[in-house]
Amino acid sequence: MTELPIRTLHLLAGAGPGYLPARASSVADGVDQVFLFLFWVSAFFLALIILLTIVFVLRYRRRPARLHPEPSPAHSTRLELVWTIIPLALVMALFVMSTRTWIQMTSADPGADPVRVQVTGRKWSWWFDHPGGKGANELHVVAGRPVELVLSATDVIHSLYVPEFRLKQDAVPGRFTRLAFTPTVPGSYPILCAEYCGTDHSRMLSTVVVHADQASFDAWAREGLPADATLADLGKQVFAEKGCAACHSVDGARGVGPSVRGLWKRHEKLADGTTALVDEEYLRESLVKPGAKVVAGYPNIMPPMPLEERELKAVAAYLETLAVEGGAPAKGEET
Ligand code: CUA
């Protein structure tokens, strides 16, 4: 709690923008303008009211010469005009400033050739489908090139928040919301979830990478696997890119869901008391209908995560490489 007064002192002393995150998007200036306007207007009137309170308390205090309050005027047109026109002007200025910024961040310029990215929020990770079919758990954009984000969610309401861009927008299941902006400074900035969404809300983090130029972005988008990559390598990539690792560890550690180390071809005890063999069919069903077979001791909260057949085979191959020594069944047991 000591941080706030210190920051306020910095602000009052007019210290540099160090107390606010860097401004790295086309809408950041507009947002800060509204914030600083509100701050200084409030600070001014707070000081004025405190000052007047002190003056009136001293000046009109009870004294031997004045035991009763003097009569006050019943009406003053001039005063009423002053306290109507000044607040009206301030509120109108605020309305114009914030509406301009709001329009800027919710409607993309159709002629600007923006990078369109489909953003999906889910418990508890972000997923970004970039142009050209490249999906990733990080957002990639280019400095100086307009971006249009279309947001949605698969389970509950999340909120995409990038402090350096001064942008925050709800991602709502069953509908689309939009954000439009142009990143201005190359670098990496944190993405947070700003709408409480359950157990791991505070860990629903990601990163936005602002590439310095289009060539760097293209190189990232083309970045693939080496020619000699195995199916398991691809599976490892799918596992990471689809955000599976957020809940399922690969080292045996207990997470939101069961670890995938040693999981393959194991007979798992389910919540309903039965057991099930973890094989390709089990994996396929679990991705489409996660609630069908829930491992005992874990919550039934996984969102559906349908994969292409190619991706599913690859993840199966990857999980097979994670089967622990001795945990793998005899060859004859496989189907
Ligand atoms: Cu997602 Cu909070």
TrEMBL record:
Catalytic activity, EC: 7.1.1.9
Family: Belongs to the cytochrome c oxidase subunit 2 family.
GO (cellular component) term, any one: plasma membrane
Cofactor entry: Cu cation
Classification lineage: Bacteria, Pseudomonadati, Myxococcota, Myxococcia, Myxococcales
Stretches assigned to the Cytochrome oxidase subunit II copper A binding domain: 112-223
Natural source organism: Anaeromyxobacter dehalogenans (strain ATCC BAA-258 / DSM 21875 / 2CP-1)
Enzymatic class: translocase
Coiled coil: none
Membrane topology type: Multi-pass membrane protein
Function summary: Subunits I and II form the functional core of the enzyme complex. Electrons originating in cytochrome c are transferred via heme a and Cu(A) to the binuclear center formed by heme a3 and Cu(B).
Pfam families for the chain: COX2, COX2_TM, Cytochrom_C
One record GO biological process: ATP synthesis coupled electron transport
Keyword field contains Nucleotide-binding: no
InterPro entries, A to Z: CcO_II, CcO_II-like_C, Copper_CuA, Cupredoxin, Cyt_c-like_dom, Cyt_c-like_dom_sf, Cyt_c_oxidase_su2, Cyt_c_oxidase_su2_TM_dom
Localization, UniProt: Cell membrane; Membrane
MF GO annotations: copper ion binding; cytochrome-c oxidase activity; heme binding; oxidoreductase activity
Occurrences of domain Cytochrome c (ranges): 230-323
Cytochrome oxidase subunit II transmembrane region profile domain: residues covered: 11-109
NCBIfam families: CoxB
Keywords, sorted A to Z: Copper, Electron transport, Heme, Iron, Membrane, Metal-binding, Respiratory chain, Translocase, Transmembrane, Transmembrane helix, Transport
Cofactor notes: Binds a copper A center.
Reaction equation(s) it catalyzes: 4 Fe(II)-[cytochrome c] + O2 + 8 H(+)(in) = 4 Fe(III)-[cytochrome c] + 2 H2O + 4 H(+)(out)
Protein name per the record: Cytochrome c oxidase subunit 2
UniProt keyword Acetylation present: no
